[in-house]
Design a protein that fits this description.
It is a single chain. This protein is of the alpha+beta class. It is built from seven helices and 17 strands. Helix 1 crosses helix 2. The longest helix is centred in the C-terminal third of the chain and has 14 residues.
């Protein structure tokens, strides 16, 4: 049985965000098997009896896992709550999905395919997978020979802070060769291309192109492991279809061998 951090368990199975869960733990309002827990590093399984403010956090293990596709809009945070008061994806999603876990992230100014699930094991399996992610991007400048060589061969950047979040503690980053890329337009002021990667590190594409002084001005994920928007309007969601579920189950089964 997989063990996860207590704040993650509470967040995945209730209306509380991870920050709120941390606060509740520190305030002594969380119990495990009748004992008050204040250690933020505590880990639990789905079978652990956890209570918050005296109420048991319910995990329904009998239902079939559900995965949805959400067409994330620009200007939304992939988080349950934002300290700055910005709109989150859960403000837009129907309330019945409030306990769903986002599989990976898209930053505030990015849009497109975002998968969410009500199953922790599926979320972890896909977040740490090598599934292909396909993006349409627009950069502020020309596509250079050096840039193409890096897309083909990968590169190591000792200072990869450009393009990252200002509060990120990531300094260096190794960029693997892209799975593929297709140049769609090259211009002096901006260029557009479609790229495919299989890692999805923290703001990987923004850091990659910022290294060449060509910041990404638009980024849209159009495919995640073969799952596409399929004409889904911005800000709307859909369930996976039968074929997508079959492919997903086959992939996870193969990875668990």
């Amino acid at each position: 049985m997989e063990m996860i951090r207590l704040n993650k368990f509470i967040s995945h199975n209730s209306r509380f965000s991870r920050r709120e869960a941390d606060r509740l733990i520190e305030e002594g309002k969380v119990e495990i098997e009748g004992k008050v827990i204040t250690d933020l590093a505590t880990k639990v399984s789905e079978e652990t009896i956890v209570k918050v403010n005296g109420r048991t956090v319910r995990v329904d293990t009998s239902r079939q896992p559900t995965v949805i596709v959400y067409n994330k809009q620009k200007g939304e945070i992939v988080s349950k709550k934002d300290p700055q008061g910005r709109t989150t994806i859960y403000d837009t999603l129907p309330s019945k999905f409030s306990h769903f876990i986002p599989i990976g992230r898209l930053d505030f100014t990015s849009e497109g395919v975002l998968l969410l699930t009500d199953n922790v094991d599926i979320a972890n399996a896909l977040m740490h997978s090598k599934l292909e992610r396909v993006y349409k991007i627009k950069i502020a400048g020309e596509i250079t020979e050096g840039m193409e060589q890096a897309m083909q061969n990968g590169m190591q950047v000792d200072d990869a802070r450009a393009g990252g979040h200002s509060k990120s503690d990531i300094l260096s980053m190794e960029f693997s060769p892209f799975n593929g890329y297709q140049v769609q337009k090259i211009g002096k002021n901006f260029s557009t291309l479609k790229v495919s990667i299989s890692e999805g590190k923290n703001r990987e594409l923004r850091r990659f192109f910022a290294h060449f002084d060509t910041p990404v001005t638009d980024l849209k994920r159009i495919d995640y492991g073969g799952i596409t928007l399929n004409n889904l309007p911005s800000g709307r969601n859909r369930y996976l279809d039968k074929k997508e579920y079959q492919d997903l189950r086959a992939y996870i089964k193969e990875q668990s061998k």
